[in-house]
Design a protein that fits this description.
It holds the Pfam family Glutaredoxin. Keywords: 2Fe-2S, Iron, Iron-sulfur, Metal-binding, Redox-active center. This is Glutaredoxin-related protein 5, mitochondrial. InterPro entries: Glutaredoxin, GRX_PICOT-like, Monothiol_GRX-rel, Thioredoxin-like_sf. With 132 residues, the protein is an alpha+beta fold. It contains 6 helices and 6 strands, in the order H-E-E-E-H-E-H-E-E-H-H-H. The longest helix is centred in the first third of the chain and has 22 residues.
Amino acid sequence: MISLKFYNAIRSISTTADRIANLVKKNKVVVFMKGVPDSPKCGFSNAVTQILRMHDVKYDAHDVLEDEELRQGIKEFSNWPTIPQVFINGEFVGGCDILLEMHRNGELVSELKKIGITSALLEEAQGKKSKE
């Protein structure tokens, strides 16, 4: 027979995973970060918010510093050890370094376009071309 403590621990993990699964599906772009977009609490979270701001992407942000269960649970859910974590269309994309690389090489614009989001940088580039 399993102990009540073990049962409750397993139930908590399962509940947290279900909660996270629902969170990543609520919006096209979801970020788990330290702090909030207007006040990031680490440089990597700040970099992610700046990149998304440049593209004028609307996203859900979840402050893992406010919820230790969420902080640990998101790492297990994505099998990724660090925060921030970015999800696009319910799929884990990566952290700051990966999002930065996607921004630099244009892949972020493409990924956003696939889910119906037009990057402000793309609109800006198209506006410059039409003026020429």
